[in-house]
What we know:
By secondary structure, the chain is mostly helical.
Amino acid sequence: xxxxxxxxxxxxxxxxxxxxxxxxxxxxxxxxxxxxxxxxxxxxxxxxxxxxxxxxxxxxxxxxxxxxxxxxxxxxxxxxxxxxxxxxxxxxxxxxxxxxxxxxxxxxxxxxxxxxxxxxxxxxxxxxxxxxxxxxxxxxxxxxxxxxxxxxxxxxxxxxxxxxxxxxxxxxxxxxxxxxxxxxxxxxxxxxxxxxxxxxxxxxxxxxxxxxxxxxxxxxxxxxxxxxxxxxxxxxxxxxxxxxxxxxxxxxxxxxxxxxxxxxxxxxxxxxxxxxxxxxxxxxxxxxxxxxxxxxxxxxxxxxxxxx
Length: 308
């Protein structure tokens, strides 16, 4: 028996889990859009284009906030400063790579650019992993908290769902606290060496979850404005804003979907139907995707690094 053989069952289990999640995500997307297609009513469609343009601004701010948070994380892991402009440009460039299925494009682009920032590749890989953990835990907390806090203005059909999110939010609180309080010196030395981590201090400095909280609040603002663009009343737009935080997270977790494409739209559409109807819900989801694509590409053009 070789040393690789005991790992095979775990690899097979991971593959089964990935395939299962992918199939469930695909089934949800197909079911949602088939249901929306049956209820589609073009006469009920309203698009207020000034609000669509306005919805791009919070996302542009969020892209920059997320990149700056990653720079801060890199500096804490390295124990020294890194060149800010190239690091921000690398982060924004890598975000475009999330449209590659499996989400492998993001870490590959950043690891490839690690040398140019004076960061080891192992430290860059660790930074990506820690960023994702904080990104997901804080996003889950912000999205759940927003839906719970605004449920008074939500349609009656969706109020019960927000009640179930209370324990989910508490779980994300626990994960976030662990990330900012667990001293890396408590981890096995072999794991620290593999991750490229040295010294003491928390796995994730508290400033990083704070920047992620700001980032997700820009998503909530973006979502509320998109809802206004399809005719939602102000109260309904505020109540739906948390969906625009949770939907990208669920799309991210669906590894087979590039940038959560399809999954994010299905979650948004299903969640927004009670507030703006089937036509408005699908339109809002598509407008959100289009607006974020424009900003992602535009920010890359503004910050892209010159060719060697």
